[in-house]
What does this fold into?
Amino acid sequence: MTENLNRTPLSYMQTYPVDEAAFEAFPLPPDSIIAGDPKTEVATLHQTESGSVLAGVSRFTEGTYRYTQTADEINYVTRGRMTITSDKDDQKIECTPGSVTRLDKGVTYTKAITEPYEEIFVMFDGDGVQM
It folds into this structure.
C-alpha cells in the first residue's frame, strides 16, 4: 500500500503536488561544464520497488554542460528553454514549455540552458535506474 502526499492511503494510485516536492542538489562534475555555472536540482516523486522506473522533477539554471544518459528518459517541459545536442550525430532539439522529449540511454548530450528550466521526467531501465 502507498500513501499520497495528502496522507490518504491508496494502493492503486497516487498524486504528487510538484510545488511541495523536496528538491536536492544534483552536482554536475566540473569537467562536464562547458559554459556558465549551471546548477541542477532534482526531486524524486516515485521509484518502483524494482528500481526500473524513476519519476521526478528537475530544475536547471543557465549554462551548458555534457551529460551521458544513464537510462532512457522522457521529459515534459514545464518552464524555460534548453537546446539539447546529441554528441552522436550533432542533431539538435529545442525544449520549451509544453514539449515532450525522449533521450536514449548511453548517448552523450550537450545541454545548453538559456532560461531557468524545469521538467517532469520518467527514467526507465530494466537493470534499474541510476542517476
Summary: The two ends are 26 Å apart (CA to CA). The chain has a mean pLDDT of 88. The chain is about 0% helix and 55% strand.
